[in-house]
Structures are given as C-alpha cells and as structure tokens.
Amino acid sequence: MNYRKLGKSGLQVSELSFGSWLNFAKLGSNDSMEKCMKYAYENGVNFFDNAEGYVYGKSEELMGKILQKMKWSRDTYLVSSKVFFGTGGKLPNQTGLSRKHVFEACHGALKRLKVDYLDLYFCHRPDVNTPIEETVWTMNQLALQGKILYWGTSEWSAKQITEAHTIAAKLNLLAPTMEQPQYNVFHRERFEKEYQKLYSDFGMGTTIWSPLASGVLTGKYIDGVPKNSRLGLKGLEWLKESALGDAGKLEKVKKLFALAGKLDIPLSNLAFAWCLKNPNVSTVIVGATKLEQLKENLKSLEKMDFLTDDVIKEIEKILSNKPKIATA
Asked: Rounded to whole angstroms, how far apart are CA atoms 16 and 9?
C-alpha cells in the first residue's frame, strides 16, 4: 500500500480506502463486512469512511462494533463520519448543518462508531438554510474540543468551499481540509475543472467516491442488470437511472472493457488506476460487499504502470469527455 498526504495537511491516507455507503447493514452481511475491514486493514488500508445518513446510522453502528472487536491501535487507522442527512428524523433540526444538528450529529457518530474522536468529519451536502459561517464556527469548536481532527465538505461547489476558506481566514478558524466528490471516467468536470483553484489556492485534499460509477465500470452491466446486483435492487431505481440512463455510456464501457482485456487486467483495476493517476486524488474509496471484490480492487495498485501515456490517450479517445481547462 502507498500513502498520500491529505492535501496540504500532514495526514497520510492510504491510496485506497474502505467505504460503507451501501455495504454495511444493507448489501453486505455483517460477517462479510468484518472480513472486508480486517483484510483491508491487514493490507495497509488506514481510512474507513462512514456517515450518519448511511442506513440511518446503522452503518456506523456496525463499523463501530467491528472496530471495537478488532482492537486496533487508534493511531493506526482513520475513521470518518458525515453530517447533513440525519438518521431518519424529519423534524426541524434533525438534518442540515446548523450548529445544533452538527453538534448532536457528531456526538451521535462518536457513540455509534465507539471512538473518542473522528479523524475526518464531512459536511455531507451544502445547506442553503444555514449560513456557511455558522457551520465553519461549529466545526472549529468541535476541533477545539478534540472531537474531530480535520473537517471537510462533500459535493460542495468550488464557490461554497472558497467561501468557507475565506470565512475561516478572516476569523482565524480551522478551514476545510478535504472534499469528498464523485470522480470516475464519466464524472470528471467538477473534479478536474471546477475544483482546480481549490487545489492550488487552498491545498484541498480529496477522498473520492464512486470510482467504478456504481459498478458500471466492472463491466457486469454490459449485457443487462443482474438481479442481485446493486442496480437491480428495489429502492435503488434512481441509482440505476443515474448510472445507466445515458445510452452511449455502455458503448464506451464495452470499448474500455476491450482495452482492459488487451492489457490483461480487470476493467475495475483500470478504473481505479485511472483515478489514482490524478495527483489531486488523495484516496479512492472502495465499496466492496464481498471479500473477493475487495481483493480484486486492492490489486489495482499493482496495475498503475499499465496506464502508460499511450493507454491514457486511448482511454481519452474512447471517452471524448476531457474537460477543457483554460490556461492563464
């Protein structure tokens, strides 16, 4: 395993990390999640990602039980939570980024994860009903109390993140260290273009999600949607539409699949390695429900050299979606 700094911070994160969006307490069994976490840790993964909104807090509860059982030294792993969606409550103040909800959500996450502090704490979405200044102040207070070490954002616009940094600088508060955006070969405009100045001006780190485009970049949806697959599950029709709604996407997947075949590597390895080729990626979150999937995904680190300049050019030719970035 290799490690990268989380932006300009001194924190080192494993190039591949383990996430729990649809894995814990939903798609994967408790036993398989324990096996995955144990294998990931034993193979150098040091960052485990979670959120209050994942299965209404049950994902954090399961991860907390596993962490407690494993008894790993606290200085050998990083754990995160995210605040915004709540754990299912619909009353006022049970969601969002107000001082009240952020404060209570943090304490709830600590309890569910069975830890004394969160290494990373994300604002899961921007909250148009709460001044950014209020959220920055609250994150700073939680850091001063020793309940979080670094805070960041997820799916915020560059403008919103810049405002948070401006407020933090003006008031001498802790600024966001990292952003957790979606990034893969099909979803790259925001990461590669909109966020460019965030990397250069603020040294933002990134913990990217959906490197496999909800499983599309495994190739398993080329001939249809398997019954027990993520996109075949009841209740995730919205995800299926988002992942497979573009008719031209699967044609590109077929070509990428053929290219991976020529290189004699799984398409998933190609997709992970492509993300890691971007120096602004701090870590790529793996979301595996089975140990076999995790083992294959971790092998992506061994395939980085396969992505030569010529292969990158071939990938870009297939995709035809490289963002046009203005040069000064």
From this structure: 18
Annotated active-site positions, please? Answer: 54
Distances from the Cα of 138 to the Cαs of 20, 29, 173, in angstroms? 25, 36, 10
Nearest to 219 by CA among 270, 285, 178: 270
Q: Which residues of 132-150 are buried (b: 16+ CB within 10 A; e: fewer)?
A: bbbbbbbbbbbbeeebbbb
The CATH number of the domain covering residues in 3-215+275-289: 3.20.20.100
What is the mean pLDDT of the segment spanning 122-133? Answer: 98
Q: Which residue has the tokens 């990428």?
A: 256
With bands split at pLDDT 50, 70 and 90, how would you rate the model's confidence at 215? confident
How many C-beta neighbours within 10 Å does residue 129 have? 9
**pTM summary value:** 0.92
Quickly count: other Cβ atoms within 10 Å of residue 310's Cβ: 8
pLDDT tens per residue across span 252-304: 999 999 999 999 999 999 999 999 999 999 999 998 888 999 999 999 999 99
| CA proximity to 24, closest of 8, 35, 15 | 35
